[in-house]
Amino acid sequence: MRAVTNEEQGGPYAGGSSASDADALGEEPRGQVASEANAADEVGRGPGEPGASEANAADAAGIETGEPGASEANAPGERTLGGKRRKKDVVMTSGPIWKNLLAFAFPLMIGNLFQQLYNTVDAVVVGNFVGKEALAAVGTSDSLINTIIGFFAGMSTGAGVVISQYYGAQDEKRVSDAVHTTIAFTLILCAAATVVALALVPTLLRFMGVPSDVMPQSRTYLRIYFMGVTGLMLYNMGSGILRAVGDSIRPLYFLIFSALMNVALDLLFVVALGWGVAGVAWATILTQGMSAALVLATLIREKGMFRLVPRRIRIHRFMLGRIVQIGLPSAVQMAVTSFSNIFVQSYINAFGSAAMAGWSSYAKIDKVLILPIQSVSLASTTFTGQNLGADDLVRVRKGPKVGVGICFVVAALIAAPTIVFADRLVGLFSSDAQVVAMGTFFVRLALPFYFALCVNQVYMGFLRGIGNTRAPMVFMMFCFIVARQAYLFVVSRVTTDITWTALGYPFGWILCTLCILVYIRTVDLKKYRLRR
Prior knowledge:
21 helices, globular
């Protein structure tokens, strides 16, 4: 399931509405921004860049995603909804910092692993039972799919902020209006996205330079996928509603269920029935539909103010305006960044199907290897928010340094064996010698640059934790889109060596790290203290 969460964070208040919205409810805008930052991270990521899986990381950890002041909810003396702290909450305002971060980050790994299991199984099955062209077709489709998912992720963030605000204020009518508007708006967007995507599939694949031997299977996969995109979007929006009111457990259960069902259906449709790349596409949309049904059934059966009543599903203009005002800037930014990866993919596509399949294999491996860095980054956001809420600036300053240290150690422990056994890992996706060679090359080339990701991701998590979502957005938009595209444009015209093309992603990571390290010296934490 391609359900959306860390990268390309524009922040839900990129349009400038946060302070006024929060003040209207007597809430602290900084805490709100910090809590929502986790949900809106980059979806259309490149390999090695935290991406679509983090939306579910919040589920796994019990983050009060979207709940006003969620990052600060556990700070001493602060209120939690209902006056009680839930057992699943992790208190980070006391005790060893490294223990706080690891205790929070580890559960994130669980949700992320199931998310990556969902995405990786498709590639493993088609790579081993269909062929390298099918593996390339599935891999090259990610950028297109993530563009649409990115847009919906941003709008989901806006809906979550609005619902969480009114839920925190115990405004039952407006919570209900927001829930029903969210579902109605989702259905409208799904219809539009399905029509547009299906119409543009052939054009976009040609634009990406997909080779003729891969084109038919890419077209088949995407057409089936986009026919069932409504299930995915309803799952994401419905899960966002549950997370906004503090329920992070049931969305995680639904994700685990859908991941396991996807594995079973992949094997049935591809291995047993021989449906090829169409089989994994059908498995995906069917399991997405099941997840959407589970989420909607949960909301319909609820007794609280966020209960979904089908006959009340309609657009409330005021509520839609608020959702769009908060969510649209993030949605556009995430979709644009995702779309930019289509250009990156086009440079890889120019080297043929073996390079495409090898790149796809590397990307799937990378998404698993990057999980500890993603998880510590999210932990850094919440750690920073809680300790800033407790007004412990000394602890706030120490947090990201400890987080980077943890990431360095974990990255080294992961990188060493992966580099040694890279060929075997890539071999899980394909037995084709050319694909294995290309995938192994990509893995071994990228891993030494993970140190840059450790720094920029943890410090961007830190910035989001203090409520500064604009700086991460600017840095990622510039480094991962503008500068990276300029780099690829230049190297593609001065050399035909694929090494320099593959270094496009590490180039963006290193540039982003340098920008962050320079910027972080200018940050005055006193400006971000909560109003008392």
